[in-house]
Design a protein that fits this description.
heterodimer, A: mainly alpha, two-stranded antiparallel ribbon, 15 helices, 2 strands, about 70% helix, B: ABC transporter involved in vitamin B12 uptake, BtuC, 2 domains, 3-stranded mixed β-sheet, 5 strands, about 65% helix
């Protein structure tokens, strides 16, 4: 008798896990379908064929099929079609994984780190500065640059934790504002003598020295990707095996209960935001020190980190804030980005479709009820909660 | 109020002189901020030389107003002194009621005047006052509309981080429809529909599917950026002469009022969108605070369970509020393209939706205060670009940071208490 409830619980957990995978797969499928519809209706050449839908349906359907199949096969080939494509996917995925881990850790403490963008910006500033302004021996230079970037990210995130812990201000508002302050700081710094190239007045920092760059392994794949995987392993250990991870999960599931049990909620908030910022800073480091499209690191400029902070949020959501999930989600979205580039050049379908797909996948994952309503046999998992609460 | 029980008081309670710990902290930090700014201004003031000239009207105005030259050093020092006095008054705690409010107003005016005088003193160009005011209105219009959208959503208990996405889709739709139809009205209607549709997505996912609203907002922004970017790249960009040639919007001159020197041309010779923005503020205020529907909106935002108990359909009211907010966000978004006669480019709204959100929070979720904050943010942003052209010693990026810093200070509770509706962001599952 005593065995049964535990057995039931295990079976329910297993069933839930299956449903979560099914929901994720269903979400990807639905997103691709919506993306296909979008491609068809926004292409004048294809949509003009729909005038003959009733007289010669094969024209409209054939044109649609050519368009969609061409775009998606280019996407697939660009993401996983060749060793070079795989390397490009890993290159895109590395910062997404790092920042996604950061956002995920905050989620598990019940905190919304919308500020990964600003933290990544500071990470890239510090790493790039060390990279071009200091001269150090090869390995040491890279290490110092990475540590500087991570540290600045941690400080920028830690400030938010401090404000939240001391005044109770909501971290969402504070992080959004900190993003803008970070972006303005970068805009200002790029015009100061310390960041200007000698004799130039455009906001583009000098290139980093080769000794500070992440060594390339193959194609665009560089050591930074391995660093992201190591970060995922550390985060797993931190969350599942360490005291601080236990405190983070406890505060995330019930802050009042954690406080009653004698945990330092304010301290945990600060530490969580600092760790989260450090990981987002690491993402910024990868943009600053990793190889760019032409195998040389891109110099620091206004848009260097892109929209990694907001992409990271989608990565953490899709990965359900777990390290393994985050790595997989980072690879999926990294593949969408690198495949999107191929789609743009080979199938004349704009790269922005990747952004649409990414947003749609996360929307469907966040609302499993829609997926189960649209696809038969897929049931929504029992607990759709994505943030905190499921420690 | 103090928590001391009345019977244990050994000194008579001065009811009008008691203040809560939070109010005290707010008063002290406001005063300290004034003292710091005053001291900074005094320090800067001693290095000021020459006159600061203010051009009251632009070169093409019918009625030419004189260019006023203020002597730099004394003006900055007087402003610094006034700020210091107001700060001292706040810190000492001897200012109450009307005196406190006027001290704050004087300090704010002195800070702006002193700072601009310091920046403009000894420069070869005069500070164009009319440009400053006109730019403020232009920058504030979408912010006011966006903040009103936020006011409606958040008072009903739905956090709206997706104002940016609503702006972007509305800007895109208005530009495209306006280019095809050559009609401003059709463009505005299309922009409003786009804003409402994005609002409907927000409502669907947050109210029906209970998706976390902050996360949802961020994802919707990403979706809007991707969707408008994709359709723009695929369809609009290759056919930009037909699909992205925005019809010019005409200005409507209000007779008599527009003849007032200085403010007349700025306030009363504007496009329909600007008038709509400023009329919307009292409209939203009236809707929220003087109608039965507004009371219901606020009740489902404060205490949905109680509202449900007395028979209010919580979800329906929230849907209505979010869709109504979409109308204003749609108008605000249209301003970026149709309202400014500018063609659409990708991500044209550049974070203005988030500044509207900041104005909403700084305005403590109240339509009039939020609109005032939006105007203030517009003023500061315009000031930053004016000072950049004046080549002042202060980097304009610092001024551009000011709205964001001010918002952080406000939510940290240092200047006044910024309290959200109680059930803001909490999905109703009852």
């Amino acid at each position: 008798m005593a065995e049964e409830p535990a057995d039931d619980a295990r079976r329910a957990a297993l069933r839930d896990r299956g449903r979560r995978w099914a929901t994720t797969a269903g979400s990807i499928l639905l997103a691709l379908l919506v993306g296909a519809v979008l491609m068809i209706v926004s292409d004048p050449d294809v949509i003009s064929q729909y005038a003959y839908l009733f007289t010669a349906p094969q024209l409209a359907l054939g044109a649609s099929w050519t368009k969609v199949a061409g775009a998606y096969s280019a996407l697939l080939a660009g993401a996983v079609g060749s060793p070079a494509a795989l390397a490009a996917t890993a290159w895109q995925a590395a910062p997404l994984i790092a920042a996604g881990l950061g956002v995920g850790i905050a989620f598990r403490a019940g905190l919304f780190n919308i500020g990964a963008q600003g933290q990544a910006i500071w990470g890239s500033i510090a790493a790039a500065y060390v990279g071009f302004a200091w001269s150090l021996p090869p390995v040491v230079h890279l290490l110092v640059a990475v540590v500087a970037g991570v540290l600045f990210g941690a400080v920028w995130g830690g400030i938010v934790g401090l404000i939240k812990a001391k005044t109770g201000a909501h971290e969402v508002i504070v992080t959004i504002m900190m993003n803008f302050i970070a972006a303005s700081s970068l805009a200002w710094l790029l015009l100061t003598p310390a960041f200007l190239r000698p004799g130039r007045i455009d906001p583009l920092a000098p290139p980093i020295q080769p000794s500070a760059a992440f060594p390339v392994i193959y194609g665009q794949l560089h050591v930074g990707f391995l660093v992201a995987l190591v970060a995922a392993a550390i985060v797993w250990w931190l969350m599942e095996r360490s005291t601080i991870g236990f405190a983070i999960r406890a505060v995330g599931s019930n802050a009042s209960a954690a406080a009653t049990a004698g945990m330092n909620v304010a301290g945990t908030t600060m530490v969580t935001m600092a760790i989260s910022g450090a990981l987002a800073g690491l993402a910024g480091v990868m943009y600053a020190l990793g190889p760019g499209a032409n195998a040389v690191a891109t110099p620091l400029s206004l848009g260097l980190v892109g929209s990694v902070g907001f992409d990271a949020l989608t990565v953490a959501l899709l990965g359900r804030s777990r390290p393994v999930g985050t790595v997989l989600a980072g690879l999926l979205f990294g593949g969408l980005h690198s495949g999107g580039l191929a789609m743009q050049s080979l199938a004349q379908t704009p790269l922005t479709l990747s952004t649409v797909l990414q947003a749609l996948i996360v929307l469907f994952v966040a609302a499993p009820a829609i997926v189960s309503a649209l696809i038969p046999k897929v049931r929504a998992p029992r607990r759709p909660a994505l943030v905190g609460g499921e420690a | 109020m103090t928590t001391t029980h009345p019977t244990t008081l050994d000194v008579p309670l001065e009811l009008d002189r008691t203040e809560s710990a939070a109010a005290r902290r707010a008063r002290l930090s406001t005063g300290a901020l004034m003292l710091v700014l005053g001291a900074l201004m005094a320090w800067l003031g001693f290095g000021t030389s020459g006159d600061a000239s203010y051009a009251l009207s632009d070169a093409f105005a019918a009625v030419q107003l004189p260019t006023v030259a203020l002597p730099g050093l004394p003006v900055v020092l007087v402003c610094a002194l006034l700020t210091l006095l107001a700060g001292a008054g706040f810190v000492s705690g001897r200012l109450w009621g009307r005196a406190k409010a006027s001290a704050a107003t004087i300090a704010a005016a002195a800070i702006v005047l002193g700072f601009v005088t310091w920046a403009a003193a000894g420069r070869p160009f005069s500070f164009p006052v009319q440009n400053q005011l006109a730019g403020t209105i232009a920058l504030a219009t979408p912010l006011v509309l966006g903040a009103l959208c936020g006011v409606l959503c958040e008072n009903a208990g739905v956090v709206n981080v997706a104002i940016e996405g609503q702006f972007l889709t509305a800007a895109f739709t208005a530009a495209t429809v306006g280019s095809v139809t050559r009609s401003i009205t059709a463009a505005l209607v299309a922009g409003v529909i786009a804003g409402v549709l994005m609002g409907a997505m927000l409502a669907l996912f947050s109210i029906k599917y209970l998706v976390d609203q902050v996360v949802l907002g961020v994802v919707l922004n990403l979706f809007a950026s991707g969707l408008t970017g994709f359709v723009f790249d695929q369809l609009v960009q290759p056919n930009s002469t037909e699909l992205n040639r925005v019809p010019p919007i005409s200005r409507l001159e209000i007779p008599l009022l527009s003849d007032i020197p200085l403010i007349g041309p700025v306030l009363f010779n504007q496009t329909i969108l600007v008038y709509l923005a400023f009329v919307s503020v009292p409209v939203v205020w009236f809707l929220l605070y003087r109608t039965r529907w507004g009371l219901r909106v606020r009740s489902v935002g404060e205490h949905p369970e109680a509202a449900d108990t007395v028979g209010i359909n919580v979800r329906a009211v929230r849907w209505q509020a979010v869709l109504a907010g979409g109308v204003f966000a749609g108008l605000g978004g249209s301003f970026f393209t149709i309202g400014s006669s500018v063609s659409f480019i990708k991500d044209i709204t550049v974070g203005n939706g988030f500044i509207a959100l900041a104005a909403l929070i700084m305005g403590r979720w109240h339509p009039v205060r939020a609109a005032l904050m939006a105007v203030f943010f517009g003023f500061v942003t315009q000031l930053a670009s004016q000072l950049q052209t004046l080549q002042t010693p202060m980097p304009s990026q610092f001024l551009l940071m000011l709205p964001y810093l001010a918002t952080i200070i406000a939510v940290a509770g240092l200047i006044g208490r910024s309290r959200a509706p109680k059930a803001d962001g909490v999905p109703y599952t009852g």
